[in-house]
Amino acid sequence: MWGTLEIKTFVVKQENRNEGIGRQLMLEAEKEAKKRNCRYLSLDTFSFQSPLFYEKLGFKKIGTETDFPKGYEKYYYQKKI
Hints:
Elements: E1 4-6, H1 21-35, E2 40-46, H2 51-56, E3 60-66, E4 73-80
Parallel strand pairs: 1-2
Antiparallel strand pairs: 2-4, 3-4
């Protein structure tokens, strides 16, 4: 409706990381967004999760919430498609 496909929950089990599963899921999400005529993908993640994973896929950090949760940061990302 607003031209953005928002990814709310995205988890790959620890034992399945570095197998390309996360990358493939994100590529499928991007394909779906294009089918729906979206212009952007958006998501948020925490500093202790995998922000570099998203940056490698072309996402740009558009915001940071500091000390949330306490001692960490929450990052907001967007990718133009």
